[in-house]
Amino acid sequence: MAFMKDMIEIDLDLCDGCGQCLSSCAEGALSIADGKARVNESCCDGFLHCLGSCPKGALKVVARPAEALEAGGQKGSPELPWPGLELERSALVKGLTSWPIKFEMISPKAPFLSSSELVLAADCTAFAFPGFQGFLAGRPLLIGCPKFNADNYADKLTSVLLNNPNLRKITVVMMTVPCCQGLKWVTDQAASRAGRDLAVSPYRVSQTGQFQPGMES
Q: What CA–CA distance (Å, rounded) separates 216 from 204?
């Protein structure tokens, strides 16, 4: 199964080559050639900051296979820096059904978010709990650290809920440290702001790899 990544595509019929989109792309993926904006897909990080910068609406989001993009926009596998990496990478991502997974990088309109269920996890949980992939079971995943970005995450998750009415259940996976409980706050805030009645299943993971359902100490 190919992992899909949100990318920018230029509608050349709408683009007038004004160049206003260029400064909004920190990766330098956008350029002007032959009087039209062009996108270098191997440089595009899918963060989509450029979307609102075009006065003509010539920028749109498309989903592309991540494997092809990692290979510099060509089909096939990128050159591997050491033998065996492809096998290791395959084992690590076997449970993922969506990409990217970082909260900051996803678009609220990403097609994979139309799923009925979502896993929202703190960054550290996959490292602390060896059985983390058991939470996935075909569900899309978002990860982040609520200690630094709770307000931004609440805004982003609100937008996700508003754009995906089929999303009904969120599994929240947190560490037992107090600051990590902010991920449950993020979920509750987003549900309230979006006016949604969600089924929320919280889990807490200890530094020793034990986990438990609910928010009890």
A: 9
Task: Tell the burial category of 13 from Cβ atoms under 10 Å away from its Cβ (0-12, 13-18, 19+).
Answer: exposed
CB-based burial of residue 164 (10 Å sphere; 0-12 exposed, 13-18 middle, 19+ buried)? buried
> For tokens 């650290």, what's the residue?
145
- How much is the pTM? 0.57
pLDDT in tens, 103-125: 888 889 888 898 899 999 999 99
In the three-class reduction of DSSP (H, G, I as helix; E, B as strand; rest coil), residue 14 is classed as: coil
Non-local (6+) Cβ contacts of 28 within 8 A are 40, 43
63-88 per-position pLDDT tens digit: 776 554 444 443 333 333 333 334 33
CB 176 within 8 A of CB 205: yes
Strand partners, 119: 141, 171
